Amino acid sequence: MKYPGADPTKPPSEDFEWRGQLPIGGDKGAWYNPITDTSLHPDLNHAEPKGEHWDYTGPDQVTWSLFPGGRIELNK
């Protein structure tokens, strides 16, 4: 999975649907793909040192942080 971009109001691809509270792309929800059972939660205003990222949760429930520039980090 790669960084989905800086606009959380747009789904990462056509297979994703918003799950959570309005507004779409807000901090109380995530884009969910029912086909792959994966989700992407925007955390674009996270404080430094972590900073802007998306949290990706795979079908195995393992969560990764995706950063601009392509860095990926396992969440512990």
What does this structure look like?
The chain is an all-beta fold. It has one domain (17-74). 0% of the residues lie in helices and 36% in strands. It is built from no helices and six strands. The protein has strands at residues 17-20, 29-33, 38-43, 53-57, 63-66, 72-74. A six-stranded antiparallel sheet has the order 1-2-3-4-5-6, with no helix packed on it. A hairpin with a 4-residue loop joins strand 2 (29-33) and strand 3. The protein is globular. The two termini are 18 Å apart.
Secondary-structure blueprint of this entry?
Blueprint: E1 17-20, E2 29-33, E3 38-43, E4 53-57, E5 63-66, E6 72-74
Antiparallel strand pairs: 1-2, 2-3, 3-4, 4-5, 5-6
Low-pLDDT residue intervals, each spanning 5 or more residues: none
DSSP helical segment count:
0
Chain-averaged pLDDT: 96
Radius of gyration: 12 Å
Taken from the alpha-carbon principal axes, the silhouette is globular
**Oligomer kind:** single chain
Structure at a glance:
The protein is an all-beta fold and 76 residues long. The chain is built from no helices and six strands.
Which labels suit this protein?
globular; 76 residues; mainly beta; 6-stranded antiparallel β-sheet
